[in-house]
């Protein structure tokens, strides 16, 4: 049987057809992934742990395929972010305090992944605790996994917090990876590494077994080479519909430039707008509000939600730390944990008062309805199918002094709980540039719109795997 290399994957539809047609084997695909990881990961440090049961998973997939009982993702290799529980394997959220005591059960989304036939290859590195540890934190760094690097410029940031998942897909280690997002943690690293990232609508995928930042704003999502591949994965996990191509001509799409983006980003936005107009899209410049009170309310709610959620998760999991207070104290005793930056965000969350806990729900509702109304008003006022916006400024140079202030457009759709899809649209200088597509409340409607945008101005580039 003919095998394939993991450096350049066929589309997921083609890969599945070749697997079920027995042109490829699941074991061969796994070998290609492991070879690619061995070759590339020492440069980028995207993979935190490999699953020792992966060979057995692949063998089961090959048996099912031979018996004509293939499931939707049968034999497809997938990496999973390490804040998503996998029974007996890592699941550290990047913290040394959780290393050595893996959970006893899979997260619900991993259960769905396995039931769909995917082969879980291992776990990916991340910004520790979903980058909810310090205002001076470094994206893509964790005490367990070290610093993940951007494959397009190894001395630049991969973004976060789903850093390893984005880099693994960008470098062809796997055709699919799972990440998580509270605000920007899928779409920003996807954009910075030149892949598709899908943050689904809240509730589409289950949250049990995911280390929480906010139980009411977190969601798992997918990173993939293309919108259709990501949609195929989500359909397999949810029973949702396949994404059908729609013509771009005649679509009315709002163009938001974001807030105070740099000149390079504005140049990239103009390039995308030109391509859309040339394809017959009616591009309407729009603005989204940026009101301080609901944004502050959302952050206040996040601190309380983090404490409530993490206390519950740690207590249920057991191990050396069973509460946020114990985590803060444990970090103080670990020289590696605090070697690069502190934990002021964890400390603030640990000091949340009972009054703040009681008021979190009302503040979350204020923030959510403001964000939903903001998007809905723009769509209605201009009769738009959706909005496109620059996902983020391009990757920044890594520095021991921490990350600089960079701007992105993820906050409003994240606070609204609405789907957000980022599409790679080429390079700014030598760094990937992605555009976000959001507006529809249904994830598969948003994916359909994103696929139309991708067909017109999608431009994914192979990483150079060298420094800038």
UniProtKB/TrEMBL annotation:
Residues 29-441 form the Amidase domain. InterPro entries: Amidase_dom (IPR023631), AS_sf (IPR036928). It comes from the Bacteria. It holds the Pfam family Amidase. Signal peptide: none annotated. PANTHER family: AMIDASE, OS04G0183300 PROTEIN. This is Amidase. It comes from Saccharothrix texasensis.
């Amino acid at each position: 049987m003919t095998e394939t290399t993991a450096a350049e994957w066929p589309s997921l539809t083609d890969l599945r057809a070749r697997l079920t047609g027995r042109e490829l084997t699941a074991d061969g695909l796994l070998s290609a992934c492991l070879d690619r990881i061995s070759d590339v990961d020492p440069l980028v440090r995207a993979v935190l742990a490999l699953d020792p049961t992966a060979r057995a998973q692949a063998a089961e997939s090959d048996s099912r395929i031979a018996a004509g009982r293939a499931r939707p993702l049968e034999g497809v290799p997938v990496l999973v972010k390490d804040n998503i529980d996998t029974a007996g394997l890592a699941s550290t959220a990047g913290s040394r305090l959780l290393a050595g005591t893996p959970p006893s059960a899979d997260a619900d989304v991993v259960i769905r992944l396995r039931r769909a036939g995917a082969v879980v290859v291992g776990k990916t590195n991340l910004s520790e605790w979903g980058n909810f540890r310090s205002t001076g934190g470094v994206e893509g760094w964790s005490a367990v996994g070290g610093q993940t690097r951007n494959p397009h410029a190894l001395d630049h940031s991969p973004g976060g917090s789903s850093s390893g998942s984005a880099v693994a897909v960008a470098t062809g280690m796997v055709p699919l990876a799972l990440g998580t997002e509270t605000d920007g943690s899928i779409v920003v690293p996807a954009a910075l590494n030149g892949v598709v990232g899908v943050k689904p609508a809240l509730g589409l995928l289950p949250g049990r077994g995911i280390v929480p930042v906010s139980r009411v704003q977190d969601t798992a999502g997918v990173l993939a080479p293309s919108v259709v591949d990501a949609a195929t994965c989500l359909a397999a996990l949810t029973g949702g519909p396949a994404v059908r191509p729609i013509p771009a001509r005649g679509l009315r799409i709002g163009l938001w430039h974001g807030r105070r983006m740099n000149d390079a980003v504005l140049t990239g936005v103009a390039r995308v707008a030109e391509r859309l107009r040339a394809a017959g899209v009616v591009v309407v410049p729009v603005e989204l509000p940026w009101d301080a009170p609901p944004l502050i309310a959302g952050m206040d709610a996040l601190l309380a939600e983090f404490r409530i959620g993490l206390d519950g998760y740690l207590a249920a999991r057991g191990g050396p730390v069973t509460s946020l207070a114990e985590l803060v104290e444990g970090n103080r005793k670990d020289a590696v944990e605090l070697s690069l930056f502190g934990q002021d965000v964890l400390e603030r969350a640990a000091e949340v008062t009972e009054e703040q806990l009681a008021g979190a729900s009302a503040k979350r509702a204020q923030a959510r309805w403001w964000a939903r109304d903001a998007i809905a008003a723009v769509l209605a006022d201009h009769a738009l199918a959706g909005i496109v916006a620059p996902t983020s400024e391009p990757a920044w140079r890594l520095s021991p002094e921490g990350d600089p202030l960079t701007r992105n457009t993820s906050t409003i759709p994240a606070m609204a709980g609405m789907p957000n899809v980022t599409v790679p649209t080429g390079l700014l200088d030598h760094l990937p540039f992605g555009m976000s597509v959001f507006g529809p409340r249904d994830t598969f409607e948003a994916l359909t719109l994103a696929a139309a945008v991708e067909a017109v101005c999608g431009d994914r580039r192979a990483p150079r795997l060298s420094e800038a």
